[in-house]
Amino acid sequence: MTEDYVIDAHKVGVTFKVDGGSVEAVRDVSFRLRKGQTIALVGESGSGKSVTARALMRLLSKRATVSPETRILYGGRDMAKLSQAEMRSLRGNRLTMIFQEPMSSLNPVYTVGSQIAEVLRLHQKMGKRKAHAKAIDLLREVQIPDPESRVNQYPHQLSGGQRQRVMIAMALANNPDVLIADEPTTALDVTVQAEILNLIKALKEKTGMAVILITHDLTVVRQFADHVYVMQHGEVRESGPTEAVFSNPQDPYTRRLLGSEPTGGARPLEGTPETVLEGRDVRVTYTLRKGGAFRGSYHDLQAVDGLSLSLQRGETLGLVGESGSGKTTFGQALMRLVHLNQGEVDFLGQRIEKFDRKAMKPLRQRMQIVFQDPFASLNPRMSVRQIIEEGLIVNGIGSGSRDRVDRVRKALADAGLPDTILNRFPHEFSGGQRQRLAIARAIALEPEFILLDEPTSALDLSVQAQIIELLRKLQADRGLSYLFISHDLKVVRALCHRVIVMQNGKIVEQGPVAEVLSNPKTDYTSRLVRAAFEIAA
Amino acid sequence: MSAVIHDGESADARVTLGNTTSQSYGALVWRRFRRSIMGMIGLALVLLLFTLSIFGEFFAPLDPNAAGDAFAPPDEISFFTKEGFTLWPVAFPLVESDELDPITFQPLIAPDYDNPRPLGLFVKGMPYRLWGLIPGDIHFIGVADGTPLHILGTDKLGRDILSRGIIGSRISLIIALSSITLITIVGTLLGITSGYIGGQFDLWFQRLVEIILAFPQLPLYLTLTTLIPVTAPSSLFISFVILVIAGLGWAQLSREVRSKTMALARIDYVRAAVAIGASDGRIITRHILPNVMSHVIVAVTLGIPSIILLESFLGFLGFAVKPPLISWGLMLQDSQTFSVIGSYPWILSPVGFVLLAVFAFNALGDGLRDAIDPY
Predict the structure, then answer these.
(1) Which of A192, A355, A370, B66 would be a feasible disulfide site paired with A188, CB 3.0-4.6 Å?
(2) Record: contact A377-B269, CB cut-off 8 A
């Protein structure tokens, strides 16, 4: 009986016109949603989960065509038959949506209150004053502290988590039947993630709406969804009650997806290896200018506030903290890529904190870096060969062009890439492949130490698992030392020997991984641990 | 090795690592550029303009400096003669009729319909030397029997306007292209230097740029161009004009390049280059320059029309080019008096050349802007 379902989507198919043909982004996807139920569409990037949701809202771009078999029933009515005007009155009213990036979904020139009120006035024809009062109620409902004054603030005055709460308040303003949450927490810090998801869950129970959760995060799905649809290449590979799918996955893809959660731990160090890198009392200060057209006041921001660490050969040291905690700055200061104001740095027995770029040059090939965003870290105008060869040329490694190409081939092979790609350009590769290229660039110089700055956080789960495997293998083969910057404690647990937890430029806790994660001493660390391993806690 | 990746990363966008042929940067740009209709029209017109200009003597029906009847209107060209329709167009020569103008009592000039002369392609005409070297006397279009044909009429000295427009495009384009070349070199180098070095140098250098940008440009052009003696040779005069235009024009481009450079200098791949020990020179030439070039190419294409306009404006005021050289601006100088325009409107036709050139380069630039960053 279709009447039981709020949404009954049958054989949804979407095709995009592209240069020289078309791409079937979604094929034969069927799902059903009961009142008060949460379903999750899970899949990696490009699996068609967002397109499915947009097809439901009829928010697809003009290049997309919905297949004729598609039948989406909303409360028994065929949505394809609704006019644009009827659709408009449904959107933001009965069917609402929140997006991944809360900064760009709010208009920066209006106060949050007026943006919430607009939704109310549009759909409920509410008066100005009444809408304002309701906006305050809604902000209170989504647990924003001091809603009376927050209601008159602009989006930039709120934190990322608060902005997402405002988005949820807007979505809930008209008591919708269905809330579509498209990666609602991906852009947020881990501890905030848990709060937002718990908020959605609590509100769902209170209002009885149905939720479609779109995510790539399996932990989130496990905690929050009643029913799960695993998608790949635009098709549903497997669906069923969450517990059943997780405990007994049928489809090989689901099994692989579940198996790609980072597992295992770092191989223990043998003996007492030498120290590769040591930093003592490192400080990095940024001078900020505050207000005043003529006489601004200056104040110093301590991005890295007197931190010390030491790293042994063959060891992986995790540097963990939320965004803005100064972990990247600290790592780059140790490599002398950002200016450090104070402190001592030893690298392989040399004091390097006073070295200028010329003095650093002979050391550069022994310390390398892999960046977070594989799309920004490779020059789009250089071929694979040029990118990897550059370090060899600069440092005068290799006896000639032929020897250098051999080294490039070897680095590619070590990074798990074929050597047929020498003349191709970065834009031809996927995120995971680009990250492999960045790793190949680093290892081509045969360094002893690599700074890994969130190398996996821009990647899909299964790709992430492969990169972790690659890093482990390279460490075992070459005795590399890693400084591993991350906010994802799962990856840290899988890769690191020791971990340092940072907050606001200071170290709050450090020690062996197993110890810190199983028995966190500070509240901040335990929040991070809870967020990573048991989101609903 | 590759099998592992095919299997594992298939979900991560559908990128194959097989032996699909890689497309070069140029091929990608061209593929996107082709989709822009205006851009393609612009490109065709620009090519046409260059062809006309390079083979000017061949395309011009007459010698641009040969004098004839002053202010002769354009010859009438028609498919119809007294005998009826012809497949090939004919021109009717202008002759003085027996009637007199009732006010000026000058003989009225009118087409001679009794005497049609068929037009021809590749006809023998006035002898010329192509680029001053290769002698020839074949013209692209003309009257078959070799008598003069004024498609756009003549100017006050009786010289053929179309021929002058075609030959004049050379000087106009030379001025535009040389100054834009200078602007590109100076603006890009200074912009990259200022943006990359930063600090105090950037601070003071940008104040200099601001002074140049804030200068009232027109009075400065006029003052500077009047500085050279009237007796100076024409080539010196043109070089000076080019230098003045470039001297004021580089500032804007250097600003744009500077801001691009500053953004690029903070991007990860530049940091990665620092991390492998690359020198500043290498970072600038290998990482920053190739990535600002796309912006520069567009800025240059869109900068050419403004210089063509500037030349025609300065030429109109009599400051850009001196006779016997011909440029569009200089031709427009003839139309300074209202009475002349009223009686002989065809002498405004160089405006058409300017419009065409400006439109062509603008359309090309717009198309390029959309296509130049294909990634």
Answers:
(1) A192
(2) yes
SS3 A508: strand
Q: If pLDDT is split at 50, 70 and 90, which confidence band does B22 have? A: low
CB distance A368–B275 less than 8 Å?
Answer: yes
Closest residue of chain A to B11, computed from CA coordinates: A44
pTM for the predicted model, two decimal places? 0.76
For the cut 60, the answer to whether the pLDDT of residue A12 exceeds it is yes
A215 touches chain B (CB under 8 A): no
CA distance A387 to A426: 9
Cα atoms in the 13 Å half-sphere on the side-chain side of A223: 22
* Mean pLDDT, residues A170-196 taken together: 83
Q: Which two tokens stand for residue B196?
A: 């990359």
CA torsion A439→A445→A448→A453, rounded to 10°?
-30
Question: Hunting for tokens 């009965």 — which residue is that?
Answer: A94
- Give the chain A residue nearest B9 (alpha carbons): A463
Nearest residue of chain A to residue B278 (CA atoms): A394
Q: In sequence order, what DSSP letters do the residues of B306-353 get, joined into one string? A: HHHHHHHHHHHHT-S--TTS--HHHHHGGGGSHHHHHH-GGGGTHHHH
Chain A residues 440-469 with a CB less than 8 Å from chain B: 441, 445, 459-460, 462-463, 466
For the residues A324-332, what does the mean pLDDT come to?
A: 86
A390·B25 Cβ contact <8 A: no
ipTM reported for the complex, 2 dp = 0.75
Work out whether strand A64-66 and strand A5-18 pair parallel, antiparallel, or are unpaired: antiparallel
